[in-house]
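_Backbone structure tokens_
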Amino acid sequence: MIETPHQPSAELHSIGTYVRLVSTPLDRVFENAYDWEHLPWLHAQDFASISLHESGPWGWRAQIGLRPDSRGTLDLELLVNREHSCWVSRPCGGESMGEVWTYAKASSPTETRLEISFHVPVKLLPAKEILFEQYQALYRRLWNQDEEMAWLRERRSSRPPSAATELDLGSVKSVRASLPLQVEFGGRPFRLVDLDGELVVHSATCPHWLGPLQNASVVDGCVTCPWHGYRFDIRTGENVEGRKLKLAKAPAVIIEDHRVLLRSTD
């Protein structure tokens, strides 16, 4: 059993706390903490890669590639204590270089208050003002992105589908002039693109965590989710890495009387 602490190590010293309210339910906030996969994708400006060592209800341990690349890699662990509604992230093993503690409390069913405190060993205290500014800027940036991801995930998961049989998109000429074209069909977002001269429509929602695909570049007939890097063939909907995930079934593209129609195949 891996110990999950609920307070900073005794030999460390607090250099400040960053407090913010996020428009995200508490469960989504903890879901985000466990989500190690998103770091080099959603936060590509700060993290280059991640290789998981182990994970479980207690949290996770992984090797993280930092940006810029000259910063090298870091073995990091994130330990979750749900009883005390908090988690800590810190380097694994060796001499402690500090800990970042996040305490999360529901302010309402749709909002969570975060208190993120930064703790360092005594040798780093002379630089505490600079370190706090750097930490605060980093976590403000990370949570700006995480909040948007969690908010969109919550919004999409609570939106029911609707019945649809056909949608007239307009003349072939006007449609091609508007590509790539974002549309809604059956209450779900889709995108129409030109793939090697063929009009192809695909789901604009990743089936993994409901990530947005509407602006994803089409490379070799595939789109990549910006949240976790999962890739899907837009013709078949299949995940090209062999995961048991598939894009939502797309309507058929029909050309009749020089007009482009989307038609349900159900």
Summary: The first helix runs from residue 26 to 34. The radius of gyration is 22 Å. The CA atoms of residues 72 and 210 lie 31 Å apart. The mean pLDDT is 95.
